[in-house]
Design a protein that fits this description.
ten-stranded mixed beta sheet; globular; about 350 residues; 10 strands; single chain; alpha/beta
């Protein structure tokens, strides 16, 4: 069985940290190492971590950032230190079920995949189960490059991935956030981009984590109104402040560089096709921004038809944005039947 590095980012996480660390000790496949990167905690987090470091049956490395990085950069910087064949992101407030690492590592090895993600049971602040978080995973299946939504995401706590995938493109090259107006891409969005572009992803319908939702969560809410939940499922509205066209163009450039890497590389042969794919997405997103920005109905109709004619809503595997965004753009962009705002 390949070894797995667990990377945990902490910040004032003392309330739930003991439970999460204890769940690592119950894994049927123990981590080969645990890297904990703290982002300036002012509570008992460091004391808890240091106590665990003394008692853990596997190596534990503690990094204390001299200045706050934010949760995404904290995860990514810590991941650079990982040495395992596979890497698992670990939030400070969840509880891992015992088979999580073994199931992920076994599936990645058996099916030669690059990213393993799964569903989760949702718990509240006192550990009561409140529902199931599926991440739209309805069955266990494997998908290849350019098969997932270009602007989708799987949450970091559910990700186990090859270190080779992380090292394929320097995360310093990641562009701005895809659905927030400021900041750079978060750790889970970055890994999703890499896997969706050049990797094979296995989506596992088993719930392998107790995912805790509470007032201090850093990840976006998974609840909301029915309309909000449906909007997230349909896709992301274009917005001139987000400039997803520029994000897509920067991804195309990074993938182009990856495709020219000399020597053995697991992903370079797939990167060329992915680069062309993202260049097409950039053009589609430029047109979508024009659609959502125009106050003239006739111009919006012309732009909408132009996107259709250019294949903008073809299936994702054919370099398009997919039918769900056709519906979204027709309703929100062309007809303006719903207020515009970025949505995941």
């Amino acid at each position: 069985m390949p070894n797995v590095s667990v990377v945990m980012a902490t910040y004032n996480g003392a309330r739930f940290l003991d439970e999460q660390l204890a769940s690592l000790l119950r894994q049927t496949l123990m981590p080969s190492e645990l890297i904990i990167s703290d982002d300036g905690s002012a509570d008992e987090t460091i004391a808890i971590v240091q106590r665990f470091q003394m008692e853990a049956p596997f190596p534990v490395r503690v990094i204390r950032n001299p200045e706050r990085l934010g949760y995404g950069a904290n995860f990514l910087n810590a991941t650079r230190q990982a040495s395992g064949d596979f890497i698992a992101f670990c939030d400070q407030d969840d509880i891992w079920l015992p088979g999580k690492l073994e199931e992920a590592a076994s599936a990645l090895s058996r099916y030669d995949c690059d990213l393993h993600v799964h569903t989760a049971k949702v718990i509240d602040g006192i550990g009561r189960e409140t529902g199931l978080f599926t991440q739209s995973i309805t069955k266990t299946e494997i998908v290849g490059p350019l098969s997932l939504s270009p602007w989708g995401v799987f949450y970091g706590f559910s990700m186990v991935f090859r270190r080779e995938l992380f090292e394929a493109i320097d995360p310093a090259l990641r562009s701005r956030h895809t659905f927030e107006f400021d900041g750079l891409l978060s750790h889970d969005l970055w890994i999703y981009f890499l896997a969706a572009s050049v990797g094979r992803t296995i989506m596992d319908s088993q719930p392998l984590v107790l995912y805790r939702r509470h007032a201090s969560n850093q990840t976006p809410s998974i609840t909301g109104t029915f309309v909000d939940r449906m909007a997230r499922r349909i896709g992301v509205a274009a917005h001139p402040m987000l400039r997803r066209d520029e994000i897509a163009e920067s991804r195309s450039v990074a993938l182009e560089k990856l495709s020219s890497v000399q020597g053995p590389n697991r992903y370079s042969d797939k990167a060329k096709v992915a680069s062309i794919y993202w260049r097409r997405i950039a053009e589609h997103e430029r047109q979508r921004i024009a659609l959502y920005s125009s106050s003239n109905t006739a111009k919006r109709a012309f732009t909408f038809c132009k996107i259709i004619a250019g294949g903008g809503y073809r299936p994702i595997s054919n370099g398009g944005l997919g039918f769900p965004l056709f519906v979204r753009d027709g309703v929100s962009g062309l007809l303006r039947l719903r207020r515009q705002r970025p949505s995941t």
